[in-house]
Amino acid sequence: MNHEDTEARRKTGGGARWGWPAAVFVAVLVAQLWLVARAGTDIPFHDQWNIEGQWLYPTWRDGSIRAAEFFQPFNEHRILWTHLLNLGLFTLNGQWDPLVQQSVGAILRALVAAGLAAMVMRASRCGAVGTGLIAVTVTVAFLPHLAWHNALWGFQSHVYFSLMFALVTLGVLGAEEVSGWRRWVGVATGGAALLALGAGAFGPVALLGLAAVRAIERRRIDAAWVRGVGPALGLLAAAVALRVDLGDQAKLHATTAGDFFNAFGRALAWPHTGEPWAAVVMNAPIAWVVGARLARRRRAAAGEDLVVLLGGWAIVSGAAAAWARGGGGEFWAGVPSRYGDFLVLLPLANAWCAVVLAREAASAKRSVGREKEPRLSRAGVVAMAAAWGGFLLVGWLGLSVEMMQRIILPRMRDREAPVRLAVAFQRSGDAAVFVGQPRLLVPHPNPESVRAVLDDPRMGGALPPSLQPERPLGPLSRAVRWVLGR
Q: What is the pTM of this model?
């Protein structure tokens, strides 16, 4: 442990270093379980009927499933870890229960938030106040209402696996000198991320971007730099090899520059998702930080490379989402909430950069001896950082109010509406029960996908509890309902 790490440990306190991430874990977990308890149901939603109900569980029960099938693509993704998790829960529980999946997803997401907080705290080497500020900011960012789709759809654990593996990869391979077992850990988690979600392919892109920043900043490329980009290039080659032929999904691609930049701007403007122009303001801090480094007007602060990596990964993820879905109409009014868990990393990175810029201006420390006097006054930089923080808060509050009014509160007022529709269809077999119903209440756009699962004899006795109320609950279902107060 070097002197700086020792000093940081002394300032924050040994227990506090882990106490704060533990507090983040508990707060995010409780918040998400509360949402699941108030708004979640055990009715599968959309692709769950096809992937789980028609393939995973029936083929497991009749013994026809093959190991290679776990690696098969789902749209543009390979979601190995989600398949394994879902199959494990199904086997332990003895039945399919999306409420169990949602509850386990809450644990995974809380682990992601706590891990992110711990990584930034450790890298930033800040004191007790800074550590507490990071913990509070990450906790607020990971409140579940802005990512309600992932929280209330049991199938979305691949989002959390992708984040988990990518965070480790970026944290390990983004370090200045990586060798020995650490390099292999980074490569292993990077490979795991490729099998978690398509976003795993963007980790090596962010790593190569950081390598480029370092090379330009130092005005040289040496042997250490070349060794550092090797793992990223290897992971990128693996991502290309695993790429998926999108088939029918290709029709959702952005086909014009206008479609792409509209979707991309909304993604980068998160949480101001209704105003693509806000992307310029929202990303000014990170652009300033990186630009000043490239111009050699400042040196990187402790933890800055990690933060830039997180922001870069979010930017590339936003670009990919804009290209893959920009032509399908999803981004015309905003950004779908399922992207929120990725995009939230960008305002978090910008917030960190804004605080660092304000701190540097207030302390009046020069990073490079030959730099010129800054054009902006110290007070001006601090004021701009504060104004940016206010702009972020306004966007977060506005999007929060919108999501609560449109999605969360109506779902809480009539949580059982999807259950009633699914049960009515199960009893009558008449798809007319779904006609005119809100899209989010209908279990699948194609009623035949639901019918195929309900009529499959291989699923007898293993359907979700609401669809087989005469059968006893599985052990995990009982435990989850006790935790949720249901």
A: 0.91
